[in-house]
TrEMBL record:
Gene symbol of the encoding locus: ctaB
Record protein name field: Protoheme IX farnesyltransferase
Species whose genome carries this gene: Deinococcus wulumuqiensis
Cellular component GO terms, alphabetical: plasma membrane
Keyword entries, A-Z: Cell membrane, Heme biosynthesis, Membrane, Transferase, Transmembrane, Transmembrane helix
Subcellular location, record wording: Cell inner membrane; Cell membrane
TM ranges: 29-45, 57-81, 102-125, 131-149, 156-175, 181-205, 226-246, 252-270, 290-307
Enzyme class: transferase
PANTHER family the record matches: 4-HYDROXYBENZOATE SOLANESYLTRANSFERASE (PTHR43448:SF7), PROTOHEME IX FARNESYLTRANSFERASE, MITOCHONDRIAL (PTHR43448)
Function: Converts heme B (protoheme IX) to heme O by substitution of the vinyl group on carbon 2 of heme B porphyrin ring with a hydroxyethyl farnesyl side group.
Domain of life according to the entry: Bacteria
GO MF annotation terms: protoheme IX farnesyltransferase activity
Length: 313
């Protein structure tokens, strides 16, 4: 197949390997997305998903594979659409779509194949609702976030961040064929968590975003506004995380975990806020711990939810 590099960069002098295609799927980010999907399956089933051990195991494998392919496909299209700006930022310049190693056309074929296959797998071996939820996450990330909001408004993260809230719904719907209020809470927890996660990182790389004209919050409104917003969203996240305890959907394991995990999230957010409010620049040593911890927070909170609902409730 002849490939037409769609980026401005020079045509590739070497052939892409499967590793380059894998890089298009953003594997590290997907690991946490998948974690929220799988733990949501245990929460939905209130135990081992599926009627028998074997059927549950099959469902877990299918949803993991299909979930990876769907989110991976979203990553591929994100890298096609963003290849111009990715090329200009040090963090992303080496991406195969930006360097021209993989042409836009080949990447699009790869991404489409992943998405179609994933949809069919979820529909056939999961439930139709799981397939639709996964497609909704894809559309949200590619069209609403990447294509539309990322380059137009600093609200990109809050609104577009909804894309990352769909994975638990995929897992939930694959088990029950339905969604309920608790599934809605899982969506909402990630929705309010995303700004904390991303803006802490954005503070560190704002100059790159400024240079390529991406209106991330620290670029548009500065560090002080960013740390204040991070603090607010951290409070929303923690309060929302604990609310399911109130209506009895989860028990003490989740409650204690949510409380401790949340206390540390608030502590790190407040530390960052105090640092910047006292007139100091948002340095790596205060922002990076929050960025890294945000991921641990989400992973452990979902683990606690799964253990709690599978064992206690
Ligand atoms: C609009 C929403 C989001 C934005 C803009 C965003 C942005 C980013 C960026 C720019 C990075 C740095 C990646 C790098 O080093 O190249 C990152 C890392 C990461 N994000 Fe997000 N993120 C979002 C939502 C999420 C969600 C929903 C999850 C999972 C539930 C997630 C999981 C991760 C993980 C695991 C990493 C670490 C990857 C690594 O170490 O390379 N992100 N995110
Ligand atoms: C169910 C389903 C398919 C959901 C898909 C959701 C999804 C892929 C969320 C990922 C969020 C993310 C990595 C945003 C970073 O984009 P960016 O363009 O700001 O980051 P970059 O600069 O590293 O490309």
């Amino acid at each position: 197949m002849t490939s037409t590099p769609l980026s401005d960069s020079a045509p590739p002098t070497q052939h892409a390997t499967w590793r380059d295609y894998l890089a298009l799927t953003k594997p590290k980010v997907i690991s946490l997305l998948l974690w929220t999907t799988l733990t949501a399956m245990f929460m939905a089933a209130r135990g081992w998903p599926g009627e028998t051990f074997g059927s549950g195991l099959w469902l877990l494998v299918v949803v993991s594979l299909a979930g990876y392919m769907s989110a991976g496909s979203a990553g591929v299209f994100n890298m096609i659409i963003d290849r111009d700006i990715d090329l200009k930022m040090a963090r992303t310049a080496g991406r195969p779509t930006s360097s021209g190693l993989i042409s836009g056309r080949n990447a699009a074929i790869f991404g489409t194949a992943l998405q179609v296959l994933s949809f069919v797998m979820l529909w056939v071996w999961g439930t139709p609702l799981a397939a639709w939820m996964s497609l909704a996450g894809f559309v949200f990330y590619v069209v609403i976030y990447t294509q539309w909001l990322k380059r137009t408004t600093w609200h990109n993260i809050v609104i577009g961040g909804a894309a990352g809230c769909f994975p638990p719904l995929v897992g939930w719907a694959a088990v029950t064929g339905d969604l309920d209020l608790f599934a809605g809470y899982l969506f909402a927890i990630i929705f309010f968590w995303t700004p904390v996660h991303f803006w802490a990182l954005a503070l560190m790389i704002k100059e790159e975003y400024r240079e390529v004209g991406i209106p991330m919050l620290p670029v548009v409104h500065g560090d002080h506004m960013t740390v204040a917003q991070i603090g607010l969203y951290a409070i929303y996240t923690v309060v929302l995380s604990l609310m399911p305890v109130y209506f009895g959907a989860v028990g003490w394991i989740y409650f204690v975990s949510g409380l401790l995990l949340g206390a540390w999230l608030l502590h790190l957010s407040y530390k960052l806020y105090r640092h910047v409010a006292s007139g100091q620049p948002a340095e790596r040593r205060v922002a990076v711990p929050l960025y890294l911890y945000s991921m641990l927070y989400l992973a452990l909170l979902f683990l606690a939810g799964a253990i709690d609902r599978a064992v206690l409730v």
